[in-house]
Amino acid sequence: MSTLLDTVAAANLPRQFGLLEKSVEALSHSSAVQSLHVRGSLAAGTADRLSDLDFVVAVHDPSFASFVRVADALMTAELGAILPGWRDTIVARMGGLGYVYLVAYSGKLYQVDLYIVPVSRLETVLARTTAMPVYLAEGQASRPHSHVDWIINSTLERPYSPDELLVEILVLGHMIRKRITRGQRFIAYAEMFALHAAVKNMIKASLAPGSSFYGWYQLPEEIGTTPIGRQCLADLDRLLTGNAVPTGEDLTAALTTALTVAERAAPTVVQALRPAIDAYWHYLEYA
């Protein structure tokens, strides 16, 4: 394993290399993991101080469901993730499940992406993305398991809950901050639109969970029938009238408004995540 990591280090020498080592050690402790691959800017040798750690985690097919279930606990206990993983809607569908974590390390907040894939589909994933192996288990054969299709499809098709949408909003805020710092205006625009959609979805999931309407349709008729709903829609309207390509100040204002909406629409969710939200603001302030 050290030799494989040395190859990545020689290509990048990123400031977060210590977190890379720690992540590989934590993830490889599980007997369910057959191999780990780093992809994205670390694999391409273009990482900077803001780059995320982007893993392909190949899990033996029979253990796939159990590994997905414990991923949040593992990332929190072993790596200091401040929030549950966001079920990534941006990553391409390659035959597995993508999750994004925000991990506190050495006084900074880093993004760690896990693309968890059954071993039986690993070659398909590796053919679609540039990746470097950083861990390979020895002497372990794997066999395909029919249940992984159902697990992956049912997970991808399951609607997001209010707490998952709040996590999505916070993760997107961290991602947008990186885009602003790098001057990536087009991507900042796209991710800001995704944040707006997540706020809208959180309102709907909280106040109209049985909605049969698609996307942005019928919001006033469906949500605006109660005082809380009207307040949430007013907050959403204020959010949408901000700059399409945000500055740092715009992002802070948008996140503040998003949390105001969450406190109105899903107060118990905010209460449950309050320590994580406080930690998030702390790290964002010093980003």
Automatic annotation (TrEMBL):
<feature type="domain" description="Polymerase nucleotidyl transferase">
    <location>
        <begin position="21"/>
        <end position="64"/>
    </location>
</feature>
<dbReference type="InterPro" id="IPR002934">
    <property type="entry name" value="Polymerase_NTP_transf_dom"/>
</dbReference>
<dbReference type="GO" id="GO:0016779">
    <property type="term" value="F:nucleotidyltransferase activity"/>
</dbReference>
<dbReference type="Pfam" id="PF01909">
    <property type="entry name" value="NTP_transf_2"/>
</dbReference>
<dbReference type="InterPro" id="IPR043519">
    <property type="entry name" value="NT_sf"/>
</dbReference>
<protein>
    <recommendedName>
        <fullName>Polymerase nucleotidyl transferase domain-containing protein</fullName>
    </recommendedName>
</protein>
